[in-house]
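Comment on this:
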Amino acid sequence: MAFQLSLPQPPRDLRMAGAAMEITPPAGASSYASAQFAAAGRGCDAIYQTVTYWPAPCAEIAATRFPGQAPGLPLGPAITTLELGGNARIFLMPAGTTGCISIKTDRI
């Protein structure tokens, strides 16, 4: 895994920090992941996203890579969503004629 950290200028407790990663599993597609962290009244808020290209149609990716996930409202005419519970969801966007990009996002 490759990793880059972006720290804000001082005062750091009043600004957002971020991280970017390339995740390469032993088998399967590499993913780009990012996370942003910000100080909040009760501690720290964070949001993350992972972006992965799959060489298969989005309907197939939804069925095989994310089985059992509830379909959500479409974002628009091309991008569908899967609900994971809470604030977590997956956006599936067609890529080219046979590929799909998944964007998994959650607020933690």
In short: The chain has a mean pLDDT of 89. The first helix runs from residue 58 to 65.
